[in-house]
């Protein structure tokens, strides 16, 4: 089996973590008699400085026949953030209509968690990725005057809720069969009551999934108090953004948090660590490559190689049991290279 992927290492520690993750993905694929055919793309900050644009105009077309994209990070101190974040990663998510953002969070033996009780956490945040409070609808008037006004309108539409919800219910079927819809429908009476109604309809198609509705403030408290009881969290764009950062630090930090942006039923998706380009540690060889490797495992799983994905996760778990492999963000003195070779060695 041949899996054609594209790789965008990007800026800062992006190329460092991608370089550490790729050999692991190649080795895991090979163990399943598959070969990764990689299209390497130099999109990002340097290209922006050289040509005025972080990626070519026909970017979506260039990667459209690839089954998946592994992305590192963008952002460099000498280029305004919005040029690269909006000019590359957000633009790609929009052009490929990547409607759902998946952010799995779990704890790992040997890795300290921010809370005593966060061991054995294993949850999946399914975040609607295109509308809600981030739809970009609104305006600002009377600029600079005493009555200056800003209006930000949240947009929630039935088809968009439906596609995110179906994806979340299917994910719950493959996990513990429990799903929590996160809303604020006690205080916001229009958009989030639509979420409640649509999700109840979809729930009827999935009688084997237990579905509860939880208000976002209560969910934030529960994630701190009893994170172990949670499995799939279905969230709007804003709530998913906030809760996934909370969940990530609960269980090991930004260097451990992977994500996938997918268009349900279509390829390519973009698989990327949640973290950014970390200019404060770039070039020192200490970036934690696990978030990128775990994003790569999600890529393998969605590309028809679930056994290769499981191998990657097992090798990471094994490597993390030895504190000598831990990078400084995990409290250790290990390097990217040391952690990466421990994972690679564990693949056998
Ligand atoms: P950041 O995630 O790059 O860094 C936040 C903190 O976490 C830093 O102290 C960093 O050293 C640490 N950190 C992050 N990833 C790490 C890893 N793998 N190993 C060890 N430590 C790690 O976020 P920040 O500082 O807000 O943004 C830096 C740049 O990245 C900005 O230009 C920003 O726009 C960009 N960015 C890009 C994203 C993307 O490409 N998807 C996402 C978030 C930020
Ligand atoms: Mg965020």
UniProtKB/TrEMBL annotation:
Pfam families of this UniProt entry?
A: Iso_dh
Q: What are the UniProt keywords, alphabetically? A: Manganese, Metal-binding, NAD, Oxidoreductase
Recorded hits in PROSITE patterns, A to Z, give: IDH_IMDH
Q: Which cofactor does it need?
A: Mn(2+); Mg(2+)
Q: Which domain of life is it from?
A: Bacteria
Q: Which InterPro entries match?
A: ICDH/IPMDH, IsoCit/isopropylmalate_DH_CS, IsoPropMal-DH-like_dom
Q: Where is the Isopropylmalate dehydrogenase-like domain?
A: 4-343
PANTHER family assigned to the protein according to its UniProt record, in alphabetical order: D-MALATE DEHYDROGENASE [DECARBOXYLATING] (PTHR43275)
Listed name of the protein = Tartrate dehydrogenase
Species classification: Bacteria, Bacillati, Actinomycetota, Actinomycetes, Pseudonocardiales
